[in-house]
Write a structure and sequence with these properties.
- Belongs to the CvfB family.
- The chain has 4 domains: about 55 residues, OB fold (Dihydrolipoamide Acetyltransferase, E2P), CATH 2.40.50.140; about 60 residues, Nucleic acid-binding proteins (OB fold (Dihydrolipoamide Acetyltransferase, E2P)), CATH 2.40.50; about 70 residues, OB fold (Dihydrolipoamide Acetyltransferase, E2P) (Beta Barrel), CATH 2.40.50.140; about 70 residues, Winged helix-like DNA-binding domain superfamily/Winged helix DNA-binding domain (Arc Repressor Mutant, subunit A), CATH 1.10.10.
- Helix content is about 15%, strand content about 35%.
- It is built from 4 helices and 18 strands.
- The longest helix is centred in the C-terminal third of the chain and has 18 residues.
């Protein structure tokens, strides 16, 4: 073993200069520090602290740019490319993006991270010593989590989904709370790495939280009222729906329950914007 392994930081000395950079050595093996990877602080007479990775030709190379993650350390990294046949590539701060294999991603492509999403990752090598991104395990996420308290109940939170299950999604909030979103508390399943915003609906004894992505009832009523009002506007101020319309008709047109529809329509009537007559609703 030479000790020169991709995904690690090494302190090496300059062995010799080349037309395209410098070869660094640990006394047993040389590695290229390309001219494009040299920072202003470079002094060929001093030992060089570098990060080791494979370049685009698969050769072990060095960079003076030290990423936030390496083998054994974790951080949030941004997805910059998605390739269905391979997985997703993340930017760790160096010139080469790192692949998170599709084998480590959800079975459904729609739940894969999109460009701009972020994953909590470290680095790993495969049996061929190739460098890959590795998603944090549940134990790692629990180790960095902090407990919420009962006074956090009903607060708004935002966080990123890091684990997807059939019954719901786990997120780590900006406060580092572990949150669980039950499938009943969301309109659609978030992608892995997607940022979501919700509110705390329960604080567990261990300090983890339950989160709802659904709007509070008064917020939902505002949105539902707006949907109904805009629909009536598009029809010249009238519609063939009222508070006695069939639930399936309301759901088909407005994608809301009859109870939500009645609350929203009632709000518009209370505000003096709408009235009902013989199965229809009209602008006043």
């Amino acid at each position: 073993m030479t000790g020169l392994q991709p995904g690690t930081i090494a302190q090496l000395h300059v062995e010799r200069e080349a037309p395209f950079g410098y070869f660094l050595s640990n006394g047993e093996e040389d590695v290229l520090l390309h001219q494009s990877e040299i920072l202003e602080s470079f002094d060929p007479e001093e030992p060089q602290t570098v990060f080791l990775y494979q370049d685009h030709q698969g050769r072990l190379s060095a960079t003076m740019t030290i990423p936030t993650i390496k083998i054994g350390t974790y951080d949030w990294v941004e997805v910059v490319e998605v390739k269905e046949e391979l997985g997703v590539f993340v930017n760790i701060g160096i010139s080469k993006d790192i692949l998170v294999s599709k084998d480590d991603l959800p079975a459904l492509l729609t739940l894969w991270p999109a460009i701009g999403d972020k994953l909590y990752c470290t680095l790993k090598t495969d049996k061929h010593n190739r460098l890959f991104g590795r998603l944090a395990t549940e134990d790692i996420m629990r180790a960095i989590a902090v407990p919420a308290t009962r006074k956090d109940f009903n607060k708004n939170v935002s966080g990123r989904a890091y684990r997807l299950l059939k019954i719901g999604s786990f997120i780590l909030t900006e406060e580092n709370y572990i949150g669980f979103i039950h499938e009943s508390q969301r309109m659609q399943e978030p992608r892995l790495g997607q940022k979501v915003e919700g509110r705390i609906i329960d604080v567990k004894p261990d300090g983890s939280i339950n989160v709802s992505l659904l709007k509070r009832s008064h917020e939902a009523m505002e949105d539902d009222s707006d949907i109904i009002y805009r629909y009536m506007e598009s029809r010249g101020g009238k519609m063939p729906y009222w508070d006695k319309s069939a639930p399936e008709d309301i759901d088909a047109r407005f994608h809301m329950s009859k109870a939500s529809f009645k609350r929203a329509l009632g709000k518009l009537m209370k505000e003096g914007k709408v009235y009902q007559k013989e199965g229809w609703s009209y602008f006043k």
